[in-house]
Design goal:
By secondary structure, the protein is of the alpha/beta class. The chain folds into two domains: 275 residues, Mur-like, catalytic domain (UDP-N-acetylmuramoyl-L-alanine:D-glutamate ligase); 133 residues, Protein-Tyrosine Phosphatase, Chain A. Helices cover 38% and strands 17% of the residues. The strands form three sheets. An eight-stranded mixed β-sheet has the order 4-3-2-5-1-6-7-8, with helices on both faces. Strands 12-13-17-14-15-16 form a six-stranded mixed β-sheet. It has a three-stranded antiparallel β-sheet with strand order 9-10-11, with helices on one face. β10 and β11 form a beta hairpin. α1 runs parallel beside α4, α3 packs across α10 and α9 runs antiparallel to α10. The protein is globular, with a radius of gyration of 21 Å. It starts with 5 loop residues before the first helix and ends with a helix. GO terms for molecular function: ligase activity. InterPro entries: Folylpolyglutamate_synth, Folylpolyglutamate_synth_CS, Mur-like_cat_sf, Mur_ligase_C_dom_sf, Mur_ligase_cen. Keywords: ATP-binding, Ligase, Magnesium, Metal-binding, Nucleotide-binding. Belongs to the folylpolyglutamate synthase family.
């Protein structure tokens, strides 16, 4: 019997639970047990949680490990264009036949029992990882940490918590301390954890949880430091000082993401080849990605075109700082966001950096803000804004009034995915 294609199987999985997000591990443990616990047969795991920078930090870790000749499985979310992007087997995107086999097997073993889309697809990824040799497994938390479907590995080799800020309050809590508690849920007894820059409120919670578990911490500002100096990245820990190229991923916020990756690699015993590769090797789409040679560039032939998927207040601050670092140029946003996000909070730091906003809805996203709603949020944040029918119309408008502008398509990874799919 031929296994159905992955798209058909993924569609079936969407119908297994009435909620997209329902944080508990019971359903995941049930399915893992039916599959004879693939999470116990993984190569050494590095588990990464945080609000911002998880994916970038994972990309740098993977580049560093591969630069040292190691092979890596990697699990990230969400995908931009195709689900296959979420699962890398020993460095390569999972093939269609391999993906279809593990999805089909998970559906068969789960039967009609309720399970969310993210839970069952995470189990499918773990199943694939358990059957393919590799040196490392890199797991990015989907949401929170404590009750996230990735939080099933009893003893990772290393944990990483990137900066924690306010996001997903409806699921994680309405204070920074509550959110940090959920992120710190990935800590395991005796397992070291690299901790990126944190507000005091978040760090206090992480340190308290680590103390309860006897989990050694490697904390930014205490055990490691990182900064830019004369166009180079300088990293220092208790072992010594490293002088490295700046991260290939653009943006000043990538300096601290790089520091977390370097701290992890150093702790695991990797040397200069891995550290340099972590800086020069990563490629992470839709994180201040410069678009060239696409159909969107054809609509804006004289403009400088960028794409970024940041979507919360901390991402807005990071984006504003990055725009400050670029050469002076009139800047326009094409912005689409989900209604689960604080659109005004994201846009407010950008109010003094950009000339105007073309607001769009996100095609195919049920939770999208309408263009009119994003327009109102942008105006509340102090920006000049107008709704556009779609990204193409927004590009055409900007080309007519500011053909030489810098144009940034932003506000959501889901919007970024539709842009890349149509590029």
């Amino acid at each position: 019997m031929t296994t159905p294609g992955s798209d058909i199987l993924l569609d079936r999985m969407m119908s297994l639970h009435p909620k997209i997000i329902d944080l508990t591990l019971d359903r995941v443990w049930r399915l893992l047990a039916r599959l004879d616990h693939p999470e116990k047969r993984l190569p050494p795991v590095i588990h990464i949680a945080g609000t911002n920078g998880k994916g970038s930090t994972l990309a740098m870790l993977r580049a560093g490990l591969e630069g040292a000749g190691q092979s890596c499985h990697a699990y990230t979310s969400p995908h931009l264009v195709r689900f296959h992007e979420r699962v890398r087997l020993a460095g390569e995107l999972i093939s269609e036949p391999a993906l279809a086999v593990v999805l089909d097997e998970c559906l068969e073993h789960n039967g009609p029992d309720p399970i969310t889309y993210f839970e069952i697809t995470t189990v499918a990824a773990l199943l694939a990882f358990s059957r393919t040799p590799a040196d490392w497994t890199l797991l990015e938390v989907g949401l929170g940490g404590r009750l996230d479907a990735t939080n099933v590995v009893e003893k990772p080799a290393l944990c990483v918590i990137t900066p924690v800020s306010v996001d997903h309050e409806q699921y994680l809590g309405d204070t920074l301390a509550k959110i940090a508690f959920e992120k710190a849920g990935i800590l395991k007894r005796g397992v070291p954890c690299v901790v990126g820059p944190q507000d005091d409120e978040a760090l206090e919670v992480i340190e308290a949880q680590a103390a309860r578990l006897g989990a050694p911490l490697l904390v930014h500002g205490q055990h490691w430091h990182v900064w830019e100096e004369r166009g180079r990245l300088i990293f220092q820990d208790e072992t010594g000082l490293c002088d490295l190229p700046l991260p290939a991923l653009p943006g000043g916020h990538q300096i601290t993401n790089a520091g977390a990756a370097l701290a992890g690699l150093r702790h695991l015993g990797f040397g200069e080849d891995a550290l340099e590769a972590a800086m020069t090797g990563p490629d992470w789409p839709a994180r201040m990605q410069r678009l060239t040679g696409t159909s969107w560039n054809a609509l804006l032939p004289q403009a400088e075109l960028w794409l970024d998927g940041g979507h919360n207040a901390a991402a807005g601050v990071a984006l504003a700082r990055h725009l400050d670092s670029l050469p002076d140029r009139e800047t326009h946003l094409i912005c689409g966001m989900l209604r689960t996000k604080d659109a005004s909070g994201y846009l407010r730091p950008l109010a003094t950096k950009v000339t105007g906003v073309q607001a769009v809805s996100i095609p195919g996203a049920e939770a999208t803000l309408t263009a009119e709603e994003t327009t109102r949020a942008a105006r509340q944040a102090g920006l000049t804004a107008a709704p556009a029918r779609d990204v193409a119309e927004a590009c055409t408008r900007i080309a007519a009034t500011a053909p030489h502008a810098r144009v940034l398509i932003c506000g959501s990874l889901y919007l970024a995915g539709t842009v890349l799919a149509a590029a």
